[in-house]
Protein 1
Amino acid sequence: MTEKKDTNGYLDMELLRFTTAGSVDDGKSTLIGRLLYDSKSIFQDQIEAIEIASKNKGNEETDLALLTDGLRAEREQGITIDVAYRYFATPKRKFIIADTPGHIQYTRNMVTGASTANLAIILIDARHGVIEQTLRHSYIASLLKIPHIVVCINKMDLVDYDESAYEKIKKQFMSFAPKLDVKDIEFIPISALKGDNVVEPSKQMTWYQGTTLLYLLENIYIKGDNNYVDARFPVQYVIRPQSDEFHDYRGYAGRIDGGIFKVGDKIKVFPSGLESKIKSIDTLNESLDMAFAPQSVSITIEDDIDISRGDMIVKTENLMRQSQDITAMISWFNERPLQVRGKYALRHTTNDVKCIIQEVKFKMDINSLERNYDDKEVKMNDIARIQLKTTKPLFFDGYKKNRYTGSFVLIDEVTNETVGAGMIIDKA
Amino acid sequence: MNNYHLNHLRELEAESIFIFREVAAQFDNPVILFSGGKDSIVMFHLARKAFYPAKVPIPLLHIDTGHNFKEAIEFRDNLVEKYGVKLYVGSVQKTIDEGKVQEETGYNASRNVLQTTTLLDAIEEHKFDAALGGGRRDEEKARAKERFFSHRDEFGQWDPKNQRPELWNIFNGKKRMGEHFRVFPLSNWTELDVWQYIYMEDIEIPSLYYTHRREVFERDGVLLAAAPFMQLKPTEKIETLDVRCRTIGDITNTGLTRSKADNLKDIIDEIAAERTTERGQRFDDKRSETAMEDRKKEGYF
């Protein structure tokens, strides 16, 4: 007989997206393996597959890291090249892990994984304490505005579960934390290998009064992570059924990037500046009285005004910034360095414009968190502050206020590649 | 503010609807790959949601190996008629008859690999610039690294080492002439999410997913359906059992599960208690450790 689960309870689950950044030897793969294994998310055939692969490589023990290494090139080289997404669930939450490599040459992958995460796990080897890589991971989490950071001090078994080793590292981390912009930092001493404080509380570290990692992942408060104050609706697509039943229907389809919209709300449309009221909020199942981020809906309005993809609908009481001059932090992804005076396609929400890069203000040394005003060549995996000018005004918020209306990507118009990701700094 | 909250299925739904609308906005001639299996049925349901109250503006494409469960084909045809959507069919048999591919021989002969040629031909013939597939990252390790918007060169090939970064909810579908995209709106869903969503939304699925009595035989620990084109080894015996499909694909590599589950709640309980992945029951993935990665590079689904 199979075990009966409460299906209705499952429908109340929340979604938590988190990122783990680390290198081969800091136990990241073991930690993920442990979370997947202890939450019974590894299936028999997956275990068999990695057992065979481990034997083929001549390993005596089953290598849990193989679970998280996907592509042939990665397995051959024993490294993770790309962002890999992993999934597991407990009765409380569904988790999406963006598993990213930690080497400096993969900064772009860490940035990508961090862009949608609610939480970042930063792993520190208890024997080595805070190292360059810790600073790098923490800075990226802070730059991308991941709301919660959990610092896992791993391999506690190798320092005899010593409380003072843990406290020392915690202090080290807190000494540079003021340079970061993170509101919520937690520390947990763990041993991913032995399982201490990952899913089960440690019997070796009775001095630790906090929760296990899984408990924290299941219970950390994330309802405050979305912006419910500033109502933002980028128009994605215009729905015109042209059927008898919906003859004059004109719905503006999109995903709410922030705030709450209600039927009857006064709205303003950018760039036209015209005002109207919300007439209905429609979905296939039902028409809604209100909708909030991150729902995908179709909105109709009272007046017949021209609205198309790329336009932004906001509430009249809470407007956005508008400008052609943008200051931003940029993470560079491409082998071809950023070209000052170069022109790029820029996509911000659903809006496409062109831009010219005017100036590199400084480059960030992400190993020391110092600004570099001398070397301004922005190469792959560099992070820099830049000034750019767009052909048409952008309607935006600062990235601090809203990750979706405050971000953009740059696209090379010749190769069509996504070459950089920007986070807008609101100077006002 | 505590009430402004979506459960995980509604959040996944909102993400998938966003992807469908991005495809409709960014591409001229997209198509939904439709097999009649649960993932493609959920895909079509999400497409209806994305464009309501308009009809789904994207046609369907079925790559037909000729080795179908008749229930799946009936289901496909009913759905097409009910929702007034256009269906294209790419025939693997035709690809074989034209001599473009060689039919495999032997006991484990499958047309699975041959589908790639038919698919790429259909994409070229109808000039589709985006093909929406129901692939999920939890299915297989090569899929775990694929993007929502997955770029294909003019030969239909995937370059896993040179994928475009995807940040926030910005998806770059820019391409050159002759290139196309594969788009995976269900990337972040798991098998259990799909079933829970079918339950939550009361979505109709083919009867094959529920328990039924069928002639089957066992090969390498997997139950396969008896069919005229399935060649039995001397040691294999046909027996009649109560089974259901966990996935629906080509008959030659769709494993069946012994089950009495005749409703969604029981199916969900079964899935939640399963100890193997759904891909573990598919013959196509047992061929080699990098079977999926290799097929994907060539242009497979």
Protein 2
Amino acid sequence: MKVLRFLSVTALLVASLSVTAFAAPKSIKVATDATWPPMEMVDANKQIVGYDIDFLNAVAKEAGVTVEFKNTAWDGIFAGLDSGQYDAIISSVTITDERKAKYDFTDAYTSIGQILVVPKTDKTSKTIADLKGKKVGSQIGTTGTMEVKKVTGVESKTYDEIGLAFEDMAAGRISGVVCDEPVAAHFALQKQEYKEKFKIVGKSFTKEGYGIVVKKGNKELVDLLNKGIKSVKAKKLDTKIHTKWVK
Amino acid sequence: MHGEGGHQPPRPATHTMSDNQPTQTSVAVGDGAAIPLKSDAGLFTAWRIAFFGSILLCLFLAFGRPDQYMAIFKFVPEGIVITFQVTIGAILLAIVFGLIAGLGRISANRYINGIASLYVEVIRGIPLLVQLFYIYYALGRFVKIPAIMSAIIAMAFCYGAYMAEIFRAGIQSIHKGQMEAALSLGMSRRQAMRQVILPQAFKIVLPPIGNEFIALLKDSSLVSILAVSDLLRRGREYASETFNYFETYTVIALIYLIMTLFFSKLISIMEERLNDGH
């Protein structure tokens, strides 16, 4: 009997934990890969900060929920959403058709583009296509990788974190890095060592919208977040956040 | 990853136990795959079930559910080649490092002994993953070598320390009478080591080296963090684009399993041959 009682208590506990999914949330868990400065990063005080963090906090305030951020590695961040470890992802996720097929997105909250960074010693390259026969780095599973792969003849190298790609370029192992424009500006123009070695070439060559990702079919959360995004935009809070982080 | 407990000195050869030392039973549990010796009937059957089972499962997935799985099997083969390149390159280099450091560990010269011991102690105290990051990015600051070479050097540097202990134990397990006999025949110490001790020691250390090889094959998956397109990284690249995480990692796990089971069988055959030779 004791075993039975133990089992039923456990079952009840598990059940009570899982009911919370999809019920109107008061607090949501959101994953972010805080290695993508200035959009999301860990500051000197070990806090997760950045554009996305401030933005989602503003959205949540408008929508009347609280947010708990979870720092999660990019590779596998979508898998964690599938397995229900968190309710949403805000991590500079570009809204693409491939991703829309598997997950639901909120409305785009900001738009950016991909850009190429090369060593200063490279005087000729203007686009990825100019780097034929060479290696170009990007973060695994990002739109940057997709852009590199589109160009035939360029060898794509994928990294777990974009910082590692820049470090490998500093070591001379790759000839270019493709990433989101604000991130490129952060690494190439703000870190002293990289500032001396790297330069951004040309203008961003894609137009992409960032969206917040939720599990397919979680309409309540999408609606709630969209409502928040609308009111943040109406109050022009997003331009304030933009000047604070991206300049 | 490497556990301390996994590295026991190799079993002493039978002829070293002839004198009055108490016979020790060493607990040889390697961190490679379990080696299916014929004498262990349970493990032998388990090996067959696992090996042929995973091959059948691969075939079933590839041809039974081609829309989900065939693309994965087509995407990863280059990764298997890289995984082998890294593993074989690293084990060969690790044997060189290990032999040098192992001889250093038994050297009578205080400085050589000290340096070799320090290498073994320091390397074994740092997790392999940390070493890989460190050596890969540190090397990049000073010399320009391809990513895969850096990965091989980093792996070999780590495994060399474990290998050194295997060589040391192997050499020390040769009865000291062998050295005395060789010296009394007029050989120099160097000659005696090269012609008498090392050939016998090699035979003893071969099985543990085989075990290290399998452990290294599995640990080579760690180089996927270094943008080396090994088997695991190919899988991750595929999964990151298709979001088919479950299917991809199923395939990756099966391929690793087939490889380690295959090699553990080879090593068990080798070990049996060596035992017959006595």
Protein 3
Amino acid sequence: MASAFYSPEPLPAGEEWRLLATDRFVAAFGPDTGMHTMATLWRIAAEPTLGLEALVGAVPTKGTEAVQSFAIAGIGRSTVFVVRGGGCADVSVAGRMRRVDARGAMPWYVAELNEVDRFALGPLERSPGDLRPAEADMPLDGGVVFGPWLGWARDVVAPPPPRPPAPPAPVEQSAYDTNVLGDLGRRAASLTRHRTEPPPTAPTPETATAFRVGDRAPERVDAPVYVGRQPRSPRVTGPMLPRLVRVDSPSREVSATHIELRPTPHGLVLTDLQSTNGTVVRQPGSGVRRLESGESLPVAPGTLIDIGDGNVIEILAYR
Amino acid sequence: MTHIGQSSPGTRLPLPHSGGAITLAWGAATDVGHRRQVNEDSFVAEPPIFAVADGMGGHAAGDLASEAVVNRLGGVIADGFVTPAAIGLALAQASRDIAQLDGTALVGAGTTVTGMALTLSGDDPYFAVFNVGDSRVYRYLEGEFEQVTVDHSVVQELVDAGAITRRQAENHPDSNVITRAIGFNEPPMPDYWMLPVEPGLRLLACSDGLSKELDDERIESLLAAGAPAADTASALVQAALESGGRDNVTVVLVDVLAVETR
């Protein structure tokens, strides 16, 4: 389970960074970032149809609301870091540390890294440490908090079992405890809703699936997948870019773009994309059936999909 | 008019992981046309980015807007293959640059952009075709010709809604009104299409100075003639000028000469 974490240690006013986390974005904005700006950024970050470009594009870079320093990470197949001014990202890539900073690039600097295990976002003055969550650090599943930096790790140990409900905490709150800004409380609630009722294209952990073509390595389905002899994608707007999977078909039984596998909140849906020779599906417990051209079918882990010329796609549970 | 890159009769580009390679040829051509004073189109033609931008706005602001886009896309050139995320961020940066242009606050400045970027899906080479506005990408392969991009224009929306026919669209009075652009203080919203890099594939990116002067049959016949990329690009621009040349006209053409797998 990947997640974000931060240090709740109090800081003098004017030195706190604004830290934002959703399941797709992790971001730290400099102390000059206004509440109104944070509210806008949160709204964009929590909107599943908007991507990293929209989030970065919404950060004011001139005028009185200008944000001089930030570090934003978009979490996906690779991790894209966008940094500006005095913001930086310390990143562990396949076990090696590197720092991504803007070095004056305007309006920001972009780096895309693969195999990112952990990273921390914050001010340039910060020394990176080993990027592992410390005992006193707090997890941040989603929301906006204040703090010195924001960390993220691909494999955070599972959270401890919930404690028995504590007696209501005394109302006395220091300014530093305020971890949801202004009217963002409602938005935080809406994010929680997003998490239990995700958008159509984002699989929940329970329904997350993977596919394996022949003896290739399994791949998680986190965007629509197109399989064929020479597959192409239809028009796509927004952040969920498709995966194209090419298979060999010496006798051309497989069509150029033969099937689509689309993740939905209720599981994976297979569609035969008007293939010439159809698709044969073997589902656990319900035998074999043939999908006619253009037909769709929900598919569960254990399903085998035969698209011809010995190309079999197996649906797996993702773990 | 800003242009980045030079035409090439054949350049071999190694694939990063699989040990294969692709060989591309490309060419570009542009002309101010017969009616306009300034060429506000810009292009970039250098792997991994091939794109055309058609600037809009008074007082040469359109020229600066299309320049901003190709400069930001040109900044992506260093890395052999790109991701669509890198394109989106370059467009977002360009959008910022345009917002900061002197003197455009009152008149507004913006640009279309369309083109193709070399990318990978798994280890396989792909063109990520991207589009904002009413410039277009066409695809030609083995006698098959098609328009890949869908215009962001009022007329296209009317066609999609079934209110007018494609034929009526050609002479519609609102044919120059677009619904998405880079600039005008709008966040960029590109559409993407993923097309496999196949031997024999020809992709043409052009400003509407081409597509409004030449119908599909004419564009197809010039692509099908099979002349080298740079010559075909010049021939397309020449044909648009002969047919009226009422707007700036710019084309970038890419040919896939060979695909070597492992």
Protein 4
Amino acid sequence: MGALKVVFRLLGAPFRLISSVMGRFLNTPFRQATALLVFAYLLIEIGIPFIPPLVGFPSAPVPNTVVLEYLVIAVVGILLWVSDNEERWSEFKQPIHDVLVRPDRRVARGFLFVIVPALVAAQTYLSARPDMSAPPSFRAIHPAPPSAITFQGEQIVLDGLENPLRSTGSLEEHYEEGKRVYYQNCLACHGDGLQGRGHYAQIFNPAPLNFQDGGTIAMLTESFVFWRIAKGGPGLPNEGNPWNSAMPAWENFLTADEIWSVIVFLYEQTEHEPRTWEEEGEEH
Amino acid sequence: MRVLPNLRSGGWFKVLLSSRHITFSSLLLAASLPFVPTHLGAQVDGEVVYNQWCAGCHGEDGAGTGPAANTMLPRPRDFTLALYQVRTTATGGLPTDADMLKVINEGMPGTAMPGWEDVLTEGDRLALVDYLKTFSRFFQDDPPTPLDFGRATPETDEAIARGAEVYQTVECWRCHGQQGRGDGESAPTLNDAAGFPIVAADLTENWRFNGGGEVEEIYRVLRTGLDGTPMPTFSDIVDAGVITNEDLWSLAHYVRRLSPEDEPEVREVVTAKLLTDTPLPQTVEDIVWEEAEAFYVPLAGQIIIKPRWFNPRVDGVWVQAAHDGRELALLVSWGDPSESPDTLWADFGERVLTTMAPGDEGSASGSGAADQLVVQFPQELYEGQERPYFLQGDARRPAYTWTWQSDVTGAFESIARGMGTAARQADAEQHVRATAQHADGQWKVLFVRPLDTGSEEDLAMTVGQAVPMAFQAWDGDNGESGNQGAVSTWYFLFLEQPTPIAVYVQPPVALALTLLFGLLVVRQARLGSGMVRELDASARRKRIARTRQLAGMGVGVIWLGMAFGSYQNSRAGWEAGHADLGFWWAIIGGLLAIAGLGALVGTWIHTRTSK
């Protein structure tokens, strides 16, 4: 039991250190509020993007507008907390008031008088400067699929559609056929590694999809993938920017079976599971 | 019969340690299993890895004839011949394991072979090296010994000058051309060991060099040659004393210098520089182009609609642009060894066409077409971000194009609703002028067009606005024509605008306002804390008077500032040929100037007496 105590003591040490530091430095509402704000910023900017990789999802930097929005919420929350009781509120205001008024805070006051207007002026300059960047691109990566498509003159209902090859013939043969189709047609852009890094990949914008990524075919049904392959860039709805996608409409090149077999190949080669219609139903 | 050991007393360890079947080393291995890549735990089968990831191009039999092979030129390596380009060994020799691993890791730039370093584990890649060697019995011989390359000589101006001399001595130009763009006299005759046509590398694009583009890598290729290609080794003439080893290093430095320092960065926006003092360039050799920033636009084979083209000659164009407020000048430069149709290259084009057979109906049947460049814009700018389809538009949104062809003087404007549907505009509606020059394996084509042609059919360009722009290029002598050429997706052309006066006015105003606000806050806080005594009546009057004086003067200064801004706008308007804008801004400026002066003088007069 004694050993257990030592372990707990050791585990507790960092927390005791933190609380003693906090007791010494974060002893006024103003400092606490500032620390909270900094903590909130770090959590949003660094902490949150760190979470998805822990459970196996890729992550991305948080957009600035989102950071700003959450910070505004954090500021409102902190203000609510400091103004919640009269004593804390006046304690909170005290250091601000001191800087504005007290003669011995002249240096800090002067500093603020230089820094704040300079920042405002710099910000004004940046926003007034002529902007020579491309217009922003808003593009839906997985636009909503239609419920049915016309494929080579034939109506195909996509809702609830399964890959017919999964219930006929040998999966291994479909994989081999899909591999042939992939290497003869898809390779130049989507690449040997299926990461969207073929030798033409860097030339096209938007870049070819990375099938290894958990955010592409792994979260789509096979019928969605069939639609995207069959209709390609030109078949995208407007929100998918059909004018700039270099994905061909493969219905002009391949039969339905060839497309279904290449879909088998994509999932087998990446070891992803297609999303099934049951899952889809549950979520709605 | 073995009794189950007592777990709590550490019985398992005793069992393991005492067992004669388990050696200490395997115990260590077992203990370290969670920390090492799985390949050490289990023997990786190179054949499985090969068949899954490599056979699509190289074929299960290793002969380089997988399903994808005939969409590629150069073709995938035939491992059964044991001919390897990237080696540290003498020409004709086998590569070392490290050589083979380097290619697997980094790929072959400029070809379809990607790098596998972050796709396959190290164990998988090492197993692949072993498996590749089973395709040829040559690897059963003694392992090859790498050549001694010595150390790189320093990159000095003398070394580069010496390299340029060696370039002439050893006749690199026979294939690679005088400027290194692969346009030498022998270039059209080149074949690889398997008899497929092969191009002499464009030495100005080191990011596409087989085996790497840095000095050490170039030197290695000079020493070892690229076996299986016409690129020879130069070790023999060093050994024969024709040139020294140092000369070869100098040559490597010189070749490296033919390319830019870094691989060009692809940027979405091409900026057209605003020329205010210099006239708009009318020739490809104008001095303006030496200063103007060059933007690299990479191109890919048109493999989107039938008939596809997997072997584009033009892998990118350099774009420079300038305008003077009235006209736009656009200079497009790209590497192309010949002025198609060139009879010296006719056979090469035929050989490429028979080699590249995607089997799409409508594929070109003969070479000998002209070189062609199409610069494409939308016919009009749409609401939002909508654009025509990047392959020369669609039925709903037509593209407006400039076409230049090597066998026709000038260029012409067309409206297209899809690839191959371009309809040339009437002669009266032709506004674009073009001049072209072919020198040392490079085309330079200069387009000039008024920003606004006054025609409803043409895209009107506005200063300060981003206009979508895309490029397509064909090399006739490479067997390209029709849909079979090189294409890009959409980029933007931005016409630089004169810096608006607001950029200079707004920041100081914002600064002054913030400062004023700060002063007010401090003052308020002081009043609130009783640190400032209430003023008596006369002092208050004085203060009010001073405040009025300040306010009046401030208003006057701001109005004068606005008057100055109007003057600037007026001048810009006159200069851009908009007399109406110039006139009205002048009127507004004049009124503001009168008001500002009035405020200053009036304030001065009225506050002077109140002292």
